[in-house]
Amino acid sequence: MSRKLATAFIATAALAATLAAPAARAQEVVLKVAHFWPATALSHQKVLLPWCDKIAKESNNRLKCQLYPAMQLGGTPPQLIQQAIDGVADIVWTLPGYTPGRFPSVEVFELPFMSRSAEATSRAVWDYVQLYGQKDFGQLKPLAFHVHDNGYIHGNKPIEKLADFRGMKMRAPTRLTNKMLAAFGATPVAMPLPQVTESMSKGVIDGYVLPWEVIPPVKLHELTRYHAETDPAEPALYTAVFTIAMNKARYEGLPPELKQVIDANSGAEFSAMLGRVWDESAAPARQKAVEHGNRFNTIPAAELANWRTATDKLAVDWVAEMKAKGYDGQAMLDSAKTLIRKYDK
Questions:
Q1: What pTM value is reported for the model?
Q2: In what order do the strands lie in the sheet with 169-172?
Q3: pLDDT digits over 277-295, tens only?
């Protein structure tokens, strides 16, 4: 090949590469993924980072994540759902219960004494939403639903019996957990997780209900003296429902092969995995409170019977509320319990 031809060939190849580069870049999709936990939290480290690596690998690096922990895109945790709907974020991880009344169908799992295992109940929530939650979540593309590990009581004085709640200002994450605390005789205080540490340090609240996993990342075990756990043979005192949800237009605008990658990494199995991660996280997180010298007690089944009696009306009221909104509340409650039993086996 002559020098002139070689030069022309190189120039042509360079031009082709230059023209092809924008097309190649256009095939890459960077997803903005936002949540309220710190980057050190289990949710960020053991779920989102591996999930993002997996979709990148399975898409030949055409799908990538840009993670925004701790509300780095601005706003407050209750605004995350709307950020996903509006496209401020492409994917969010949050609690539907942070926006009371907006997602009434999934509240049923937040009634007291429903869940025994986060993995089993997370499977149940995914199935349940396919039956009853399509309308509520119609503006989003849900990727997963899950619950956290068993929720317990933590505070600056011991809780051993129902009467001990009187006079306590207690934080809870959702509408129904606030109702539960009120039924126990406490004064419920609604606030997102990031506010709990400061509220405990300043004495704004006397205690809170939370699962073990989230306590060490926000250093609440260092501000809490007493922990009341419930008889492990009994259903959990409470749990809360989370969702990982995607902007619907962002999902629908993906090429078919990239949609397939998202679909393969969402749904029932992803939901169950999230629950399993939370179940496995409880013991090591609890150990942090042990090492700090905190005090523990277990509420026995006999005493929990009194707590159940105090909160029985919550389920009755919830069914009536759903009926007033046009839902079949009793069928929803029965279905949630049936699905939990199915997967507990």
A1: 0.90
A2: 187-190, 169-172, 207-211, 151-155, 226-230, 295-299
A3: 999 999 999 999 999 999 9
